[in-house]
């Protein structure tokens, strides 16, 4: 990986240059070294990719379950065989540490195995009918071409999720990875799935230079052959995409920002709570949409919890994620680092107290804990994509629920309590699309419904529920003449 080889794009089963001939450098956020030079696609390449996907669709939608199953089982094995190499790639392309990179590889391999099983799942229901002698079938069928737009932060798991279920149920995909992760979030999958036997055109990957996502997205939204979109990224971009998609009546699945709470109740096991809080706030230096940003802790345990949480934050080693033991690697880019610095500074200027971290170290920002953050600071109002947690004392569990729900975002919430039943009862009152009792909000398994409520998105990914978003039901009735 030190030689920075060139990567082309993948269209119609072939590795090709961008039609415009341009390339762009893919940087390592740790040292700004060029990891690889990548073809810089644009709208014209996206049209070619949609052409290829549309051509491949009739045959792929009629492929046998055995063929689809074989592709995904082989791809799962290839992912695991290449795990070490993929972990290294995630480190240099996205600054991801070895343990979270390992989680991503396992997630993708498991997802692929579940996608393989989907090939043989029932494709519909036989319905009762009030008309005598009539047969009625509600059959789920693939929709055609699916456009997938994915982010860099968990490049392997999120791109795997954006393509596996759609393809397993018979669709063809055009994947637009993030400009920050064209390799691990895109071209890697082209390589693996092609080697696993996926026919040409079923998966096409169009990478692009920074600032040029819009032209490719416009093709995916506007081309009538693309029947569904799925997007994982920020609420700001998702809203823009949804406005545009609305004009074309194009259904889309949206996984957007979170601003996730962790509730620590007075009966919690304090060391366990501090462990969940540290993982939930600082995994992959806080660059996971499910990360806990706001920790509401009941007064009785607030001192003990804060002391342990701060001690854990201070122990997290900062540095190059390729070094063993490093937990906090670089932020994805300079812009992200400066945004965190600015927001923490604003909070401090207005009276917040820094209990841990709070100062950049090269391209990294250490695990940071703040308290007394004024409610109208940017930090207290919306997601800041980095390792910064706000601790807030609350008088009781009702106040914790009220504060947790006081946000337009509702992705994931953790509740730490000694009484599991109480946690389950509180879950009913929380707006979040996902609630985890006695775990951090960072919690995801490929077969479970993943998604948020309110401004955190629409629809659910998952090898179970996700199928509904990538198929449509056709009703067929028949009777003898
Ligand atoms: P993040 O902050 O996680 O990078 P973004 O919403 O900026 O979130 O990026 C998520 C995905 O959205 C990336 O693939 C990015 O290239 C893409 N993207 C950025 N701008 C647009 C746009 N105007 N239309 C569609 N997709 C876009």
Automatic annotation (TrEMBL):
Keyword Oxidoreductase listed: yes
Record keywords, A-Z: NAD, Oxidoreductase
UniProt KW Lyase keyword: no
One Pfam match: Aldedh
Domain Aldehyde dehydrogenase: 15-476
A single GO molecular function term of this UniProt record: oxidoreductase activity, acting on the aldehyde or oxo group of donors, NAD or NADP as acceptor
Transmembrane segments: none
Assigned protein family: Belongs to the aldehyde dehydrogenase family.
Name by which UniProt lists this protein: Acyl-CoA reductase-like NAD-dependent aldehyde dehydrogenase
Naturally occurring in which organism (per UniProt): Petropleomorpha daqingensis
């Amino acid at each position: 990986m030190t030689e920075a080889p060139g990567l082309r794009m993948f269209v119609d089963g072939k590795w090709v240059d961008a039609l415009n001939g341009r390339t762009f450098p893919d940087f390592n956020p740790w040292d700004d070294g060029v990891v690889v030079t990548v073809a810089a696609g644009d709208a014209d390449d996206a049209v070619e990719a949609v052409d290829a996907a549309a051509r491949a669709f009739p045959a792929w939608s009629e492929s046998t379950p055995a063929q689809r199953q074989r592709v995904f089982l082989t791809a799962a094995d290839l992912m695991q065989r290449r795990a070490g190499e993929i972990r290294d790639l995630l480190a240099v392309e996205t600054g991801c540490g070895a343990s979270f990179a390992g989680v991503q590889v396992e997630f993708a391999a498991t997802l692929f195995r579940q996608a393989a099983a989907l090939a043989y799942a029932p494709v519909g229901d036989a319905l009762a009918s009030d008309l005598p002698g009539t047969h009625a079938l509600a059959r789920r069928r693939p929709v055609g071409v699916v456009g997938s737009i994915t982010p860099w932060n968990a490049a392997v798991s999120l791109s795997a999720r954006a393509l596996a279920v759609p393809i397993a149920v018979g669709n063809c995909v055009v994947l637009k990875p993030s400009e920050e992760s064209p390799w691990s979030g895109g071209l890697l999958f082209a390589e693996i799935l092609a080697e696993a036997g996926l026919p040409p055109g079923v998966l096409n990957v169009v990478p692009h230079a920074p600032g040029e996502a819009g032209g490719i997205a416009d093709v995916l939204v506007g081309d009538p052959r693309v029947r569904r979109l799925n997007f994982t990224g920020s609420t700001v971009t998702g809203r823009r995409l949804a406005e545009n998609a609305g004009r074309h009546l194009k259904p889309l699945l949206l996984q957007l920002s979170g601003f996730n709470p962790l509730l620590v109740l007075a009966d919690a096991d304090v060391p366990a709570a501090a462990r969940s809080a540290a993982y939930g706030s600082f995994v992959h230096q806080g660059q996971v949409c499910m990360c806990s940003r706001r920790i509401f802790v009941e007064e009785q345990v607030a001192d003990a919890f804060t002391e342990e949480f701060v001690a854990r934050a201070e122990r997290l080693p900062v540095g190059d994620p390729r070094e063993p033991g490093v937990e906090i690697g670089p932020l994805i880019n300079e812009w992200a680092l400066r945004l965190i610095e600015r927001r923490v500074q604003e909070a401090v200027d207005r009276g917040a107290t820094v209990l841990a971290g709070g100062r950049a170290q090269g391209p990294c920002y250490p695990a940071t804990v703040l308290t007394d953050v004024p409610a109208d600071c940017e930090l207290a109002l919306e997601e800041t994509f980095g390792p910064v947690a706000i601790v807030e004392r609350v008088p009781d569990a009702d106040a914790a629920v009220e504060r947790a729900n006081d946000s337009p975002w509702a992705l994931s919430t953790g509740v730490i309590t000694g009484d599991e039943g109480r946690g389950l009862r509180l879950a009913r009152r929380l707006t979040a699309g996902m609630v985890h009792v006695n775990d951090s909000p960072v919690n995801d398994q490929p077969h479970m419904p993943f998604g948020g409520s309110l401004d955190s998105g629409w629809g659910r990914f998952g090898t179970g529920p996700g199928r509904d978003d990538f198929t449509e039901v056709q009703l067929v009735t028949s009777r003898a003449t």
